[in-house]
Amino acid sequence: MFDKVLIANRGEIAVRILRACREMGIRTVAVHSTADADAMHVRLADESICIGPPPARESYLNKIAILSAATISGADAIHPGYGFLAENADFAAMTEEHGFTFIGPAPEHIRLMGDKIAAKRAARSIGLPVVPGTEGAVGGEAEALRAADDIGYPVLVKAVAGGGGRGMKPARDRSELPAALKLARAEAEAAFGSAEVYLEKYLRRPRHIEVQILADLHGNVVHLGERDCSLQRRHQKLIEEALAPGLNADQRQAIGASSAAALRALGYRSVGTVEYLYEDGKFYFIEMNTRLQVEHPVTEMVCGLDLVREMVRAAAGRPLGFTQDEIRFSGHAIECRINAENPDTLVPSPGRVADYHAPGGLGVRVDSALYSGYTVPPYYDSMIAKLIVHGANRNECLMRMRRALEEYVIDGLETTIPLHRRVIADSAFVDGEYDIRWLEDFAARPR
Ligand code: ADP
Question: Which of 12, 174, 207, 265: CA 20 to 30 A from 381?
């Protein structure tokens, strides 16, 4: 096992990872920008090293500075968390070239899944159901029109280099396609420096359902059930639950087993998430994330596993300590992402936390790096906490979440807590009747 792990991240996920390491008796090294000298992850780590000024590209995205910090501190391994360098194949490769273990998937799998068209092609070839669409990028307008006729309207124009929902435009019929192409290309060019786009069948009201995978270095691959992450705004997830309310045990077993088999065929290692859209009883692969996800705690709560510990163990070469048959799901879990932003306009609201009180009690978990007097810096992601509840069933979770949201005090900032309180009380959400468009409609509804 490792003696010392460097955590190449900040905020709640850095705290989450160092907690798992401490329980395993592994020493931790925090890295931080000058804006984060007083951050919780720096205070809790055994050692800390400043790696640069506030902008992420000069600190948390600075590969050389992070590898230098690993060398100076004598770390054995690096955990990238999520975001920043977590899905940067070059960083994963450099980490290993410098003699450190990368606690995550192999660089070639990160690279493969980072290219949306290559990922879809790979998914198709290993037997996963994918959204109908073009095999590769489309050339001119005439080619796109022909392809769209084959796929059938409505279609969605998507950027090859896409991410964060940018460069995506739907077309309801033939007359709308030229404008959608032009808009998507312009947005993709501006955001990613590449105007390449492809076409997909546009699903009207699907759910977003994703399967959690865990794999060791010895060819053992299991799935840990699925999560429903349909509650999104601007393609950002806001509430997640495990297991998915709309699936039965047979569907769960089928999609879980085929996702695990596909990744076994790839020779995949560590954790990963296979993302699908689900409509009318059918799954359609959209992409795979080769990292720990923000929403991993809901899976931990229903499986009784520590996913970070499992990642560290697997990276150290330990075989999985259980088989697929030994994985049991217990109860239900829901996570609310608390962002420092205006819940209506989504404008970020960084600043000083005047008073902080986190909820507690049976079945309540708070993953956060906040404390009273902490100043949320304006440079990074606005997510400041995750409130997770676990209960015997979905109903108990809803009661518990309502109560926990009432207890939560974060004074001095605007947060998404008021929006969560409204969603949790809404009858459609309570009934589990929602899809990926639901939250946008809900947030726009007059009050
Ligand atoms: P990104 O990498 O930009 O996040 P994804 O392919 O993961 O792009 O899609 C993000 C979100 O966009 C999905 O969760 C879903 O809400 C929506 N979406 C993507 N593809 C389709 C599609 N074919 N039909 C309808 N909605 C889609």
Answer: 207
